[in-house]
Structures are given as structure tokens and as C-alpha cells.
Amino acid sequence: MANFKLFLFLPVVFILGCSEQVPHFFSDMTLNDTKNFKYQDVHQLSLTLSNLTKKIDETGFSPVLKCAFHLENTNHGPWGQAWVAFNISVLVDNKEVIAINRADVLQNHIIDIEFQHELPKFGVKLKDIKIKIQPIAWMPSYPLNIVMSDQSAP
């Protein structure tokens, strides 16, 4: 009987191995010199930056830049929650003075970011400060529900 199970198992493995594979994460993988791949549309997340505010506080011993901005998935795709990672660069007179790596949770297609950082000198004008945000990656996150059973109640 043990040998008979083996003969049933081998054709199933052969059929599964020879069947055409449907791509899951990548919709197209090229094997040319560029080695590029393209994600499926469901794995694309596009965020829109808005409400960028900048303030400079020079009341202390060193000037502090206070910034806030709003990121939103305006397409409202299937990913209402996601872990998003990005770089924030602060440029003064087109020279990078601050580089921050941030990661936070996108909730209901929205994320609000606030940060503050010391500036290198006094007298910097708001018009001379440029904020650049560059995406790194994102990952879906799903809510966790814990249901208490009657047996676990004290």
C-alpha cells in the first residue's frame, strides 16, 4: 500500500511542476540584460503630498525647523492600511542639510507627518528651504482582532 501511495503522489507533483505558473508579485519579468521587472497594479501604491507647512523657530539657542505634511492615497485602492517608508531631505540654498528616514502607518489611506530638526545657522529664510520626499517602500498591514473565548475569561 505504501508503494501505491507513492505512484499516486508522483504524477500529481509532475503535473503541478509542469503547469504554467501565474505570477503573483511580478506581472512581467524580463530576462534580458537590464534585468527589470514590473509589479502588478495591485501592488502599486501612489501617495499625494499636500498641506506642506514650514516654520522656523529662532527663540532658542539654535534655530529649529518645524514641518508637517499630509500624504494620501487618492486612488483609495485595496490597501487602506500600509506601512510606508520614505526619505525626507531638507535643502537650504540647494544644499542638503538634513536627511531623515521615516516609516509610519497609513491609516484609511491617509498619513500625517510632523518633524522638527535644528538648522545649521540663524537667518535662514523659509523661501530658501526646500523639502524633498522620496519613497523607499511600503508593505500591507492588516488589522489584528483578538476575540476572548468563554474558556479564557477569569
Summarize the SSE layout with pairings:
Elements: H1 2-18, E1 26-29, E2 37-39, E3 48-57, E4 64-72, E5 82-92, E6 95-106, E7 110-118, E8 129-140
Antiparallel strand pairs: 1-2, 3-4, 4-7, 5-6, 5-8
What this model shows, in words?
- The chain has 154 residues and is mainly beta.
- Helices cover 11% and strands 45% of the residues.
- The chain contains one helix and eight strands.
- The protein has one helix at 2-18; strands spanning 26-29, 37-39, 48-57, 64-72, 82-92, 95-106, 110-118, 129-140.
- The strands form three sheets. Strands 3-4-7 form a three-stranded antiparallel beta sheet, with no helix packed on it.
- It is elongated.
- The two termini are 50 Å apart.
- The mean pLDDT is 75.
| Amount of helix | 10-25%
Low-pLDDT parts are none
Shape: elongated
Supply the helix-strand structural class. Answer: mainly beta
Q: How many DSSP H or I helices?
A: 1
Order of helices and strands: HEEEEEEEE
Computed CA radius of gyration, to the nearest angstrom: 25 Å
Report the count of strand segments.
8
Query: What number is the mean pLDDT?
Result: 75
Give the biggest sheet. Answer: 3 strands, antiparallel
- The CA-CA distance between the termini, in Å, is 50 Å
* Beta-strand share of residues: over 45%
